[in-house]
Structures are given as structure tokens and as C-alpha cells.
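Example for tutorial group B:
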């Protein structure tokens, strides 16, 4: 685990996630409210989402806390075989066995703490957990697709593509899923396309 001054990064596995579920939910609701997700929080969905992680014995949640003990960021992951059908189906249709993939959920980090290496710590911890948890060939995650000309995009927004590529990930061409959620200010949930990124787990980025 890389050292980050002023930050404590800890890993929770399986049912150990339950005591930190409230912190993770709060971070998700805060960070995902911003671009590009524009997620209008749904507490019922959050409870179901976190219950699925706690039910998977090989799931992982990595939490970063500041010197006061306050959670400022978190990231998750679980075997794709334990994920919902919406995530598994695209891999099955592409001929990739879900049992070969460890899926990374969110990485959420409050804005004042970005650019300090915490994102790398999240990937380090989840990749190490995947290696220790089974014979997974791939790690994967997805990001929401937005139209380039969407006027809601903040002028100072920067995509994470360069960071992900630096970690050894590449867009999985043709591999995507569809999830529905309510955007801020909308009347109801609408479908959103999310594109997958993947890398071979045995690669070790510098």
C-alpha cells in the first residue's frame, strides 16, 4: 500500500463492508451528483447496491480517511460473476467468461483530495485484492458515455482517460452496458450507456 501523507487507506472485504456502507453511500451521493453522472441520489438503490457487495465474500471496499478519520474517498470491486446481470451479459455476449473478470465499481473522491495519489492507491489495493482472490485474468470497470457537445459539461472538466491508460487499461471496443438513473432536476430515471475498460491482471503498471 503506497504511503500518502495525511491519508489512511484501508481495505475491507465481504461483510466487513457493512460498517463502512454509510460512508460509501454518502460519498457516492455527493460525488456522483456532479458531471458526468449527474446522479440524483436514491437511498433505496444505494441500500441494494451496498447489500450486494456485502453479500459477496470476495468483494472489496477501499476507504481513504483524512487525519480526523473522515472518509474522503472510497472504491469498490467484486468478481464479475457476483455482479448484476446488466454487467455480466455484455461479457458473456463477447465470449468472455464472467469468472475470468474482477469488476471494479466506483472510485469516488472528494474534490479537495484529488491529485494526491489516492486514485492510484485505490487501483493498487483493488488489483492486489483481485490477484489474491482467485485466478482472474482481467480487471474491468465502466464509465458513463456523454456526448462531446453536452452543454452541461463544466468548462474545467477533465476526463480520466490518461490516468486509466497509465494504469494499463484500454477501452473494450464494443463492450458496454445500459443502466438507468434519475439525473439532477429530471422527473424520472432515464437510460445511460456505460463503456467498459479492461486490462490483463498479470500486467503490473509502474
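The residue assignment follows.
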Amino acid at each position: 500500500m503506497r504511503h500518502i501523507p495525511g491519508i489512511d487507506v484501508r481495505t475491507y472485504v465481504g461483510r466487513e463492508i457493512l460498517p463502512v456502507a454509510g460512508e460509501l453511500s454518502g460519498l457516492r451521493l455527493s460525488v456522483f451528483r456532479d458531471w458526468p453522472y449527474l446522479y440524483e441520489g436514491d437511498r433505496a438503490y444505494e441500500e441494494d447496491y451496498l447489500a450486494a457487495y456485502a453479500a459477496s465474500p470476495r468483494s472489496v471496499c477501499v476507504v481513504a480517511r483524512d487525519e480526523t478519520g473522515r472518509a474522503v474517498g472510497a472504491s469498490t470491486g467484486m468478481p464479475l460473476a457476483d455482479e448484476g446481470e446488466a454487467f455480466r451479459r455484455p461479457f458473456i455476449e463477447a465470449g468472455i467468461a464472467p469468472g475470468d473478470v474482477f469488476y471494479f465499481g466506483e472510485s469516488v473522491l472528494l474534490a479537495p483530495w484529488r491529485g494526491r495519489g489516492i486514485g492510484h492507491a485505490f487501483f493498487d489495493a483493488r488489483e492486489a485484492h483481485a490477484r489474491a482472490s482467485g485466478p482472474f485474468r482481467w480487471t474491468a470497470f465502466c464509465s458513463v458515455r456523454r456526448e462531446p457537445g453536452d452543454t452541461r459539461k463544466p468548462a474545467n472538466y477533465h476526463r480520466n482517460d490518461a490516468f486509466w491508460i497509465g494504469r494499463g487499461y484500454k477501452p473494450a471496443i464494443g463492450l458496454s452496458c445500459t443502466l438507468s438513473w434519475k439525473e439532477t432536476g429530471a422527473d424520472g430515471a432515464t437510460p445511460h450507456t456505460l463503456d467498459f475498460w479492461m486490462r490483463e491482471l498479470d500486467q503490473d503498471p509502474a
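The chain has a mean pLDDT of 93. Compare this with the pattern of hydrophobic and polar residues in the output above.
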